[in-house]
Amino acid sequence: KTLNMSMLAEFLDCSKESADIFDGTKIMGSNWGKEMNQHPVVFLSFLNVKADNAVSLCAALKAMVRAEYERYYPVIHDGKIPDFQIKEYDTVYEVLSSPGSGQGGSKEMEDTLIRSITVLCQVLHMYYGKKVFLLLDEYDTPFMSANSEGYYGEVRSVLNGILSASLKGNPFLEKAVLTGIQRIAKENIFSGLNNLIVCTVQDKEYDDCFGFTEEEV
């Protein structure tokens, strides 16, 4: 799953130069070849967002989002976008960089985490003039970690809030791709999201796009 997501990120991301990687591949001979490195991409991996307590899990969440903010920091501060938008970006980044976990009564940290991805998408949309591709790898890892360690109730609102704000009410989103072990259902944390397409390893639709086909093997 992660290899597939990395491939999508490398192909789409307009902040990268991927011509050498995809040179001679089938996609470059198709109509989709012109889409290479043409879109802003937010790529977040929840693989390491797991812990034995709520404090540590929220700290891992902060670190994950902060790393993507830092990746775009030089671009956002080159003077192309308005100061008020940079100020909002910097405010979120400062909170993500501050000590603390978002637990223990820090409502500011929780609210910042919940809106952090949407703010990043907004800034990138303003800078590049295109909507953002959001790639969330292993999205369900923190949910499973919190559930197995017995503190799911402490972090549920933050985890649900991040996904809800990023996927439901995000006007700066072009498309989102999520991978995980748990099947994505149009209920619970994804309630109200009615344009989901769920693909499993048994589905035929993309079996010639990822991995190997029987003929190739």
Q: Ends: how far apart?
A: 19 Å
Report the biggest beta sheet as strand number plus sense, adding barrel if it closes: 3 strands, parallel
Q: Give the tally of β-strands.
A: 3
Radius of gyration, in angstroms, nearest whole number: 18 Å
Strand order of the biggest β-sheet: 1-2-3
Instruction: List the total number of helices.
Output: 7
On the 0 to 100 scale, the average pLDDT is 89
User: What is the N-to-C order of secondary-structure elements (H for helix, E for strand)?
Assistant: HHEHHHEHHE
Bin the strand percentage: 5-15%
Briefly summarize what is shown.
The protein has 217 residues and is mainly α. 46% of the residues lie in helices and 8% in strands.
Topology record:
Layout: H1 2-12, H2 19-22, E1 41-45, H3 54-76, H4 83-97, H5 107-128, E2 132-137, H6 141-149, H7 152-167, E3 173-178
Parallel strand pairs: 1-2, 2-3
Helix pairs in contact: 3-4, 3-5, 4-5, 5-7, 6-7
